[in-house]
Amino acid sequence: ADSDPLQDFCIADLNATVIVNGFPCKPASAVTSDDFFFDGLSKEGSTANIFGSSVTRGNVLSFPGVNTLGISMNRVDIAPGGMNAPHWHPRSSESGVVIQGRVLVGFMTTGNVFYSKNLTVGQMFVIPIGLVHFQQNIGEEKALLFTAFNSQNPGSVVASVNLFGSTPSIPNDVLTKAFQVDANVVNGIKSKFGS
Ligand code: GLV
Ligand code: MN
């Protein structure tokens, strides 16, 4: 969902002081082969957290070579029993492929229709831009996926963390009404997300 580049490449200068919409280019004279390669997705991420999952990002912030190209990739590790919790990307569609394990992949439309499928190694999925989605490890072993985006910086909003872990905290009467539960339920969820 990003716009097209106006030159061959524009390796992001992440330290630039002026940022308009994306990052300015570092001088071509300073560009080397290393700027077009990234090994950050080669390592397994730690899944020792409440969701039992880890998303390692190859976006413009970690891989400046994708600047202005409208693409990026993630590595997703999910422990047995874990999931990549419901979230959405405001600036990108997502495609993905399962490399290891068995994974339930699902998303919900703006009309609240839920589409999902159990996937195994080599199978691919697509998540339309902006729709809430998740991946759950439904196997006995760890799961590994790679995902790809049509944005250098898709953004990721995790629904539960966004609503119950914001800074400052969303007033309880908003959340009790929205979810039709008591304040003690809201406080219980907030306590899990540090808000
Ligand atoms: C998976 O949903 C990801 O955003 O990488
Ligand atoms: Mn996603």
Description:
The protein is an alpha+beta fold. The chain has one domain (28-164): Jelly Rolls. Helix content is 12%, strand content 29%. The protein has three helices and ten strands, in the order E-E-E-E-E-E-E-E-E-E-H-H-H. The strands form two sheets. The chain has a five-stranded antiparallel sheet, with no helix packed on it. The protein is globular. It binds glyoxylic acid (GLV) and manganese (II) ion (MN). Manganese (II) ion binds at residues 87, 89, 94, 133.
- Which CATH class is shown? Mainly Beta
Assigned CATH superfamily: Jelly Rolls
Share of residues in strands:
25-35%
Helix content, binned percent: 10-25%
- Number of β-strand runs: 10
Concise account of the structure shown:
The protein is α+β, with helices and mostly antiparallel strands and 195 residues long. It has one domain (28-164): Jelly Rolls, CATH 2.60.120.
Characteristics:
alpha+beta, Jelly Rolls, 5-stranded antiparallel sheet, 3 helices, 10 strands, binds glyoxylic acid
Question: How does the SSE layout of this entry go?
Answer:
Elements: E1 53-58, E2 72-78, E3 83-88, E4 94-100, E5 103-108, E6 114-119, E7 124-127, E8 133-137, E9 143-149, E10 157-158, H1 159-164, H2 172-179, H3 183-192
Helix pairs in contact: 2-3
The chain binds glyoxylic acid (GLV) and manganese (II) ion (MN).
Glyoxylic acid is lined by residues 55, 74, 76, 84, 94, 133, 135, 147, 156.
